[in-house]
Amino acid sequence: MIIKELWYRNTFSKSNPHFFNSLFTTALCRAIMGQGKDSPDMLVKLCEIVSYVLRREGVKAEFISLKKEWIQVEHFIDLMRWYYGEDKVMLTINDEISERYQIISLLILSALENANKYADWESEVPIVIKVHKVKSDLEIIIENTFCKQDRAQHQGERSGISSLSQRISRYGNKYKIAYKENNNVFIFKITLRNYDI
User: Which pTM does this prediction carry?
Assistant: First the structure.
């Protein structure tokens, strides 16, 4: 179990360095061009995400409140909108994000980072994130388009998703994930069972 957890965290630590590097470069260029008034805020959010990930790696407790992780998810969404455009990420939340509900740390952040990594940002269709209650469960659905040609080149490379699946499999019915590809849309769903605000 410990080895699997370390393997997962190592996989997450390799998360899309190109995106982070591009964010720093963009912030610098916008500042030089006199268009960088948002750059400091975005860099602070990026630093908070990195700090959160590093802190979670050093903490022995594997769980964290959904609300605490959701703060970093919102930072990540802000960064994607700032970098790619406001209309490139659509967020719909139809229920309150609970402070009391405990999740495996990096569960939602990992899923969103995976969507960012493989998204076709040239597409007119945005990344869509929906949060809604279904009976006693909370569903978090992340949809992104992908380039079919790129997907064919990386067929079978689902290390991020498979590591998430392995992680949550240790906790019985508390969480459930499902994913499917439909044409060039990837849909990833996290179900938080017995969600109680």
Answer: 0.81
